[in-house]
Amino acid sequence: MPLKTRIQLIKGDITQIQADAIVNAANTSLLGGGGVDGAIHRAGGPEILANCRKIILAQGGCRTGEAVITTAGNLPAEFVIHTVGPVWSGGTNDEEKKLSSCYKSSLKLAAESNCTSIAFPGISTGAYGFPKDKAAEIAVTTVIDFLLKNTQPKTVIFVCYDEEYYCLIQQKLNTIL
Length: 177
Prior knowledge:
The chain is of the alpha/beta class. It has a single domain, classed as 3-Layer(aba) Sandwich (Leucine Aminopeptidase, subunit E, domain 1), CATH 3.40.220.10. The chain is built from six helices and six strands. Strands 1-6-5-2-4-3 form a six-stranded mixed β-sheet, sandwiched between helices. The two termini are 14 Å apart.
């Protein structure tokens, strides 16, 4: 399947996306929060939090750059992949490497869970303050690199809540593809 047909770009609400897995920009506690995290927990219902609590008991949360998977509860997806993005602190704390790891970890977990489609929000671009242009570059290049080496997932959807990030992702995709 050509790379260009494996990537989609949507402006909208990730909680409304039909995909095998949607990615949650979570915090290390996995207990919900604001932004995408809060929206996913609210829309998905208590089943997601119950699954997160089991993960917390088993491994104590989720570290920055890593990912864990739960049910999607009431969402139109089968799974939620929770990944913890880095807080931007000027680029001196390996933030770019950690953000790339969020995408790689999520894609790997999706493939291991036989997901044919996965939807990503703008990880770390909200309250965590990651510059959107840098985040878009990392998101697009990391996803493309993964897809070039792997057959699963078949489809990656970038779901952009705001116009600015949508345009940045579109620019990066147009430049690379």
